[in-house]
# Entry
Amino acid sequence: MFNTQLRDYAKVYSGFLNEDFCFSIVDSLEKVRWAKHAYSDSSGNNLATYEDDLFISYEEVPLKKELDLNIWNILDKYVRHDMEHMSPWFKTWSGYSFSRFNKYDPNTLMRVHCDHIHTLFDGERKGIPILTVLGVFNEDYEGGEFLLCEEEIRLKRGDVIVFPSNFLYPHEVKPVKSGVRYSFVSWAW
# Structure
């Protein structure tokens, strides 16, 4: 039977990344180059950036390969085990992006959006994002609440959430009030 409760397709994995791993990643992220985040319009042809946007980085840091392996493991757990009873026809994915790091300084945010990411596909790699994997590396900040479908999902250090990347799952990160919020995101197709 098909499950029509959309919230049930979003799964939080508490403490999936251990604290030492998270502390090490944060130490590394304090030394990388950051760029302002940009949003694509619905056609994917134009980009918009706002002064209060977060910063992003794709730089290689120690433990990034281990993080990307963890992303594969969480996708496997989500698709093959946790969602098996809800989506019996959905058994796999074609690929996933390497992790992108997100940095939220005070007064920065991620506007409400859906993850129809055009920039993942370059003509050789084709597809549309079907799952978003998002995790938080630290807790020493105020604000920065993650909202999915207008519901606050409390994510602590090491927590990871997986949810569908389509128009039914708008999400955002509220402005950080103090401290710096570090997280990652990846997408499967």
